[in-house]
Design a protein that fits this description.
Elements (H helix, E strand, L loop, with lengths): L1 H59 L2 H10 L6 E8 L4 E4 L13 H8 L3 E7 L2 E12 L2 E11 L1 H52 L16 H30 L6 H12 L4 E5 L5 E5 L2 E5 L4 H13 L2 E5 L5 H4 L5 E4 L6 E6 L3 H20 L10 H21 L7 E5 L6 H8 L4 E5 L7 H4 L5 H8 L4 E4 L2 H14 L3 E3 L4 E4 L2 E7 L16 H14 L6 E8 L6 H14 L7 E8 L6 H21 L7 E4 L5 H10 L2 E4 L8 H9 L6 E5 L12 E3 L4 H13 L2 H17 L2 H14 L8 H7 L4
Helix pairs in contact: 1-2, 1-4, 6-7, 6-22, 7-22, 9-10, 10-11, 15-18, 16-17, 16-20, 22-23
Length: 761
């Protein structure tokens, strides 16, 4: 800092001095020009007046009168004297004291006589600076001689030197004041915050504070502040990971973390590049006024796959859905992400309105979604939608093939039901690629899937993959049964694989999860939960003792209407809870372009209003329905404060809300009521499992949850949190990629080895 201050002081002194000298030089030149102009003007006025008198005296031929006239005009300010010359440039009359200096006519005299015009010049006579104005003298309009008016101009130099002296002292004062003020500004605005930031980073490095603690204000250095904050977060994450690993080694446990996943992927890929394909992109650029904001959509997929892509400099290929997405990519539709620490590439694929409507809203979400979910909503299949689905799969496949063109043995993870045709398309062009597809939604039984007019094409497209993953084993079984019925192939039920057209596809369950790598029992005390609950209810304008929560997209598969009916039945059976228990339903509008979803929004709101109208009293009401998108932080607050969480899906591949609720309950309190028709119910056996169609059973589960003993709650939630911790999102990704990389592409696979890798510890 001292070296910085010294350099700054020297730079300021030199800079200010040079600038001041430049302005001073201009000022001196201007002053010198002004004084000379003023002297020339005075000389000209005096010369014109004197010339008339000299011409009259000369006309009468009186040399004595001429000499007396010359002497009379010698007593003027800065006037050295005058001299009169005839046409032959001989001296006629002169002021005493100038005889020796002007014995010979100065240069302006002959010029004035010859040109019949006034001539002016600044000249040096010995050591004296003078100004000479020469005027022609006339007699009857004929030039007969010349008049020289001589002024002493040395005073101009004296005044110029005075200006330089004043400038020097002014510059000195300015340098002192500006340096002083600058040093104070540096001290208060730069050095102070930097010193605070250094102290903050030192404390962070030594583990005295958390990276969550706010960094000192560095508004003047925002790019630096962002980098420092990112570095601090990375440092904190590295320390936490090291501490977690140390604790796990001490306890003999093996926990999957983002760092372990990155190492595992690097080992398994052996230098190969990883490519992820999904409909939803991990970063969306949206315009807000004149600025562009970057948003991360709520997705467990981003949490799971970003560490993998970071570790291998991979590529994520997705639909560019943001209104500012096209402004942020390069000429090849690529950009590096994450924005604060670019580690991998996002490749965007563009869809027009017709493609998006037909492929996404039409075939994928009006056809496949209700087909695969047993929720008694009729799937709609249109030939135009199927055509768009094929075209979009081809467009995404073309983007994938372009990205892997020069990549040997690429590894490709295709995500979900939007791209069922892609695995076969990729394999036909690049048989050396390892392709896995993970189907995030349920797979129905063969009879239900047979409703789809294009079931054979969909199954054949999926069987182009080397590995197909589902959440649970029952979905794998349904898929293999569908394959056995729909296409010509050989199904190996012992090893859960399919051989079709000399290509083998492994089918295994990979239950997805959430990020729960830190287990801190007692992290939230009972009082803080009560206070947070009271604050939330107060913000909602409700007075209640107990609170339940439900978090869903407004989707007919989530059982929201059945949930509301169960709450109504609960208040009918147990009226003592009226005025005490309030249920908060967070409902994020989804796919509102589709009529069934648009109608469902109104149905849910009407049902909530009906139940509230029936039971509401004073400042209490049974249901608070929040119909908007909520951030992770907002939802987490409700998770922490709720006495129970209701998950009543009619059919769900996994349902991460159940796991997110448990991950948020570090206080080991709260009760999870979970539909038996979710994939999560296979893992979370300590939840209160219900049939969401059985309204009385769900109502009874609400009572049991509210009246459960604290010790029972704690024991149940601890066991479920342990399950999630051991089978977190990083383990899901690690198992999936490991199983894919273990598959041999050039021979019949060692089925036992692949199966074992799919269930590694």
């Amino acid at each position: 800092m001292r070296l910085f201050s010294a350099r700054l002081i020297v730079s300021l002194i030199l800079g200010i001095t040079l600038v001041s000298l430049g302005f001073s030089y201009y000022q001196v030149v201007a002053e010198k020009h002004r004084l000379r102009s003023e002297l020339e003007r005075r000389a000209e006025v005096l010369g014109e007046s004197l010339a008339d008198n000299v011409e009259r005296s000369w006309e009468v031929g009186s040399d004595r009168e001429l000499q007396r006239l010359v002497q009379r005009f010698s007593n003027r300010e800065h006037l050295a004297g005058v001299a009169v010359y005839d046409k032959q440039q001989k001296l006629v009359a002169i002021t005493p004291g100038l005889t020796k200096a002007l014995a010979s006519p100065p240069q302006p005299i002959p010029q004035a006589i010859a040109s019949d015009q006034n001539q002016s010049a600044f000249v040096r006579l010995g050591t004296q600076q003078i100004h000479i104005l020469a005027l022609p003298l006339h007699r009857k309009d004929v030039v007969v001689g010349g008049l020289a008016v001589v002024h002493d101009s040395s005073y101009i130099r004296a005044q110029v030197l005075q200006v330089w002296r004043e400038t020097f002292f002014r510059v000195l004062a300015q340098v002192f004041l500006i340096v002083l003020i600058t040093l104070l500004i540096v001290r208060w605005s730069i050095a102070g915050p930097i010193a605070q930031a250094a102290q903050w980073m030192r404390a962070l490095r030594m583990g005295r504070i958390s990276s969550r603690q706010k960094m000192p204000d560095l508004d003047m250095f925002r790019p630096l502040a962002r980098e420092v904050a990112t570095m601090a977060q990375s440092l904190s994450q590295a320390r936490n990971a090291a501490e977690s690993e140390a604790r796990l080694r001490e306890a003999g446990e093996s926990l999957w973390t983002a760092d372990r996943l990155a190492v595992q992927v690097q080992i398994r890929l052996q230098g190969a590049r990883l490519f992820v394909v999904s409909n939803r992109e991990p970063y969306i650029h949206q315009r807000r006024g004149r600025s562009v904001e970057v948003n991360v959509p709520p997705s467990g997929l981003v949490t799971a796959l970003e560490p993998v892509l970071n570790a291998c400099d991979g590529t994520w290929i997705a639909h560019g859905s943001g209104d500012a997405d096209a402004e942020t990519v390069d000429a090849h539709d690529r950009l590096r992400v994450p924005p604060d620490d670019p580690r991998y590439t996002l490749r965007r694929v563009w869809l027009n309105k017709e493609e998006e409507q037909g492929y996404y809203y039409g075939f994928a979400n009006e056809g496949l979604w209700p087909l695969c979910h047993i929720a008694h909503t009729r799937p709609i299949f249109r030939a135009d939608d199927w055509q768009h689905y094929q075209e979009v799969n081809q467009k995404f496949t073309a983007a994938v093939l372009e990205e892997i063109e020069d990549i040997p043995s690429p590894v490709i993870l295709v995500q979900d039901y939007h791209f069922a045709l892609m695995p076969r398309m990729i394999k036909e062009k690049r048989p050396d690629a390892r392709v896995a597809v993970f189907w995030h939604i349920p797979w129905p039984n063969p009879e239900a899937f047979g409703i789809c007019p294009w079931q054979r094409q969909l199954v054949d497209g999926l069987l182009g993959a080397d590995l197909i993953g589902f959440h649970v084993q029952s979905h794998c079984n349904n898929f293999l049964q569908t394959v056995d019925r729909v296409v010509e192939s050989r199904v190996d039920w012992e090893h859960f694989s399919v051989l079709r057209q000399d290509h083998r596809t492994i089918v295994h369950p990979f239950p997805i999860s959430v990020d729960l790598t830190e287990d801190e029992p007692g992290g939230d005390d009972l009082d803080s939960s009560y206070m947070e609950r009271a604050a939330l209810l107060r913000s909602l304008g409700v007075e209640a003792t107990f609170m339940g929560v439900g978090v869903d997209r407004v989707d007919y598969t989530k059982g929201i209407l059945e949930r509301f009916l169960a709450i109504e039945r609960f208040f009918e059976k147990y009226p003592s809870y009226q005025g005490k228990f309030t249920f908060v339903q967070i409902g994020a509008p989804s796919r509102t372009h589709i009529k069934r979803y648009h109608d469902l929004l109104a149905e849910v709101e009407v049902e909530a209003d009906r139940i509230n109208w029936r039971f509401q009293a004073g400042k209490w009401k049974p249901i608070v329905y929040l119909q908007r998108q909520h951030s992770h932080e907002e939802i987490a607050a409700y998770y922490r404060a709720a006495d129970l969480c209701l998950v009543t899906s009619l059919h769900d591949g996994m349902n991460l809300v159940a796991k997110e609720y448990l991950a948020a309950r570090r206080d080991d309190r709260g009760v999870l009521i979970l539909s038996q028709f979710t994939g999560a119910a296979r893992e979370l056996r300590d939840a209160l499992l219900v049939n969401p169609y059985d309204i009385d059973q769900t109502a009874e589960a609400i009572r049991v949850a509210l009246e459960m003993e604290p010790e029972d709650k704690q024991l149940r939630i601890q066991r479920m949190r342990r399950t999630i911790k051991e089978n977190n999102i990083y383990r899901w990704a690690g198992n999936l990629i490991t199983a894919l990389c273990e598959i041999r592409l050039d021979a019949v696979e060692d089925q036992e080895r692949v199966r074992a890798s799919a269930h590694i510890a």
